[in-house]
Amino acid sequence: MSLRIKNKELEILIPESNIKSRLKSLADEIRKEMNKNEEIIAIGILKGSFIFFADLVRELGSNIKIDFVVVSSYFDKMESSQNIVFKKDIEVDIKGKNVLLIDDIIDTGRTLKALVEYFQKKNPKNLKTCVLLDKKERREVNYDADFVGFEIPDKFVVGYGLDWGEEGRTLKDIYFVK
User: Fold this and answer.
1) Which of the chain's termini has less CB crowding within 10 Å, N or C?
2) pLDDT over 70 at 72, yes or no
3) Which pairing describes strands 174-177 and 157-158: parallel, antiparallel, or unpaired?
4) In 10 A of CB 117, how many CB atoms?
5) The whole model's pTM is what?
6) Residue 157: which region, alpha, beta or left (left: phi > 0; alpha: psi -120 to 50)?
7) What is the pLDDT of residue 103?
């Protein structure tokens, strides 16, 4: 029996073992780039990044503070809209701090670019971005994440925190919708 969401069949794209392996090397890249002795404020973009965020900050180790921002651009659809709505802002002061903004996926680039521009106004010492998945084929704005887990083709994906109308988030692998 095949796995299905909303009557659509799913096919595995990235198995859990590959995700776990990449998390370790990604954390090493981040620690090397963002002085590992200094505190990092990790900001997760909810809801999609929550599993990736949790696993990544554990790999990053100590000297990490966390906060979250909630924005929406999908509104239960399979494609990102051009409208980004803030639902919750961060609560920590990031002025003069090292900040790592963590998201599940960058496709059009609009959401991440808008968030970076927004957080730059709060005057962090250093602001870097990290995404689990990069869908370069879908880019509509000139923006790339600083750290990328996997580059993927232009397919709609679910699992490992990513959802389709709240379905599929808890799958341990990443699947594409056929």
Assistant:
1) N
2) yes
3) antiparallel
4) 10
5) 0.90
6) beta
7) 96
Enzyme catalytic residues: 107
Per residue in 83-111, pLDDT (tens digit) is 677 889 999 999 999 999 999 999 999 88
Residue 133 confidence class, pLDDT cut points 50, 70, 90: very high
Task: State the virtual CA torsion across 111, 114, 116, 122 in degrees, nearest 10.
Answer: -130
Four-point Cα dihedral 55, 61, 64, 65, nearest 10: 50
Closest to 42 in 3D by CA, of 128, 108, 110, 105: 128
Total residue count of the chain as it appears in this document: 178
* pLDDT tens digits for range 47-62: 889 999 999 999 998 8
Domains for the chain: give ranges and CATH numbers: 16-154 (3.40.50.2020)
